[in-house]
Design brief:
The structure holds 2 protein chains of 2 kinds. Chain A has 2 domains: about 150 residues, Aspartate Aminotransferase, domain 1, CATH 3.90.1150.10; about 270 residues, Type I PLP-dependent aspartate aminotransferase-like (Major domain) (Aspartate Aminotransferase, domain 2). Chain A is about 35% helix and about 15% strand. Chain A has 15 helices and 17 strands. Chain A has a 7-stranded mixed beta sheet, sandwiched between helices. A 4-stranded antiparallel beta sheet of chain A has the order 13-14-17-16, with helices on one face. In chain A, α8 links the parallel β8 and β9. The two termini of chain A are about 35 Å apart. Chain B is an alpha+beta fold. Chain B contains 5 helices and 3 strands; from the N terminus they run αβββαααα. Chain B has a 3-stranded antiparallel beta sheet with strand order 1-2-3, with helices on one face. The chains are: A alpha/beta, B alpha+beta.
Chain lengths: ~425, ~150
Amino acid sequence: MSATTFSDGELARIRAGFPILSRTVRDGKPLVYLDSGATSQRYAGALDVERAFSEQVNSAVHRGAHQLSEEATDAYEGARAKAARFVGGADEEVVFTKNATESLNLVAYAFSNSVAGQPKDPRLDLGEGDEILITEMEHHANLVPWQELARRTGATLRWVGVTDEGRLDVDGVHGPALGELLTERTKVFAFTHVSNVLGTVNPVRELAAAARAVGAVTVLDACQSAPHLALDVTDLGVDFAAFSGHKMFGPTGVGVLWGRNELLHAMPPFITGGSMIETVRMEATTYAPPPQRFEAGSPNSAQAVGLGAAIDYLDELGLDRIAAHEHALTERLLAGLAQRPWVRIVGPAEAVDRVGAVAFDVQGVHAHDVGQVLDDQGVAVRVGHHCAWPLHRRMGVTATTRATLAAYNTPAEVDTMLDALDRVPEIFGVAS
Amino acid sequence: MDLYQELILEHSKRPLHAGLREPFGAEVHHVNPTCGDEVTLRVHVEGSGADAVVKDISYDALGCSISTASTSVLADEVIGHTVAEAMTTHEAMRSMLTSKGADPGDEDVIGDGVAFAGVSKYPARVKCALLGWMAFTDALHQAGIDTTSKDKS
């Protein structure tokens, strides 16, 4: 990695942009926020932009003949352009949704919605004998919509397994290999860029190329990569990518679906109503071209504008530098955990093709109890199955404790967490 | 930290009356979907109406120290008591756990359950502490036991 990590001075400036990081919790303990994988903290600059939009510009976008409406539309469409630039796509390929879950559902429903009355594109025609391929490491958001799609259409859901180390079992060590799973029957292959539990970075280019070779549409869950790794959909070769504003220093209530233009054009609408129409008669309606076709109703304009500002900030920090910084933190955390024989890391033990989502199991102590002991010392982590229950079952654990790192975390915070963790065997009297 | 009282740790390490036994009138399976904690619980009740007695509570629990210990306390406090007494204990336990720290619990009613008073200050853990108790009352209903008879004690 050629980019450098952040200096202490840079890190202090970054942290100053996130006021919540200087608050205390649990009787005056400094907050150590290691739960950005669930939701990141909000960049104050993005909050300022969101508030300024609401105070000075707010009005209905894409309608109205007044100046405010023009300015609001410009701001909203400006945010779309930023999101497009962020993923390396075209403006009209960016659809604003309420979150990544909605983005993924939007794509899943395109395969089974016939309400549009337009000729069905063969790529979106799904039925018995067809297959949907996902992976065993998916977040429920990229799992349940495909299960439901299979149920609605009669298609079969299949999945690529996970190795003991926590990588996709592409070679078929424990089950069928990718080559056996990905066939001409596969109509869609949906997979995550980065596992929200294991931290594993999947070989997206290779997976997408293999899917393309059999004519399957590819859907990338980019939630856990967007704030950590540079994202270029053209280079990756996927057809769709979904991510959420609140995981990348932006507001809740706004997500993005990027889709290849010609596929979006072939898709029926998902949610219908105002703003997404071309002409409406009592008998029937025709629909606007994408992205408007997929943005029914009044949009979350202030949130989209806030997300645009968060994207600017990520660009300003530089995703290559963020990745370098987080890589160093991840190595520090993994090394610290490896020194504790009573901890089992669930996911790759080396910081190779992995990011700073680090899940682990403390021998003989339930994750809830581990999280509680950390919380008591000001360290915020997530416990449970992190919306990836099948993956936990596969890894042989009911629940894990998960620390997730972000650009604003410091080496000292990693050390505080490791020290706090040492209280766990003390309290629960297990071998340390 | 005051959450992990010695009694709780003790019960979680060596849960009382654990394991699934026969006979039983009903078996239920409850989960805490946020963390995947699970409990399978059986009840065996003899008699009816005000004389109904909980003869056995047997269970298989997979969960955190709070949920495991709470189920252990449940079994220990309730086995051998009338259904009416059990419901009084359940109500006292529920009331303490949901009091946000206001109700310290009455040892005469809930016994070792008082060790869980600290849990009520941690809203995310209240569900853990109630998992076994909710399973127990559900099992009584599944077994067709009348839980409305008044405690005569």
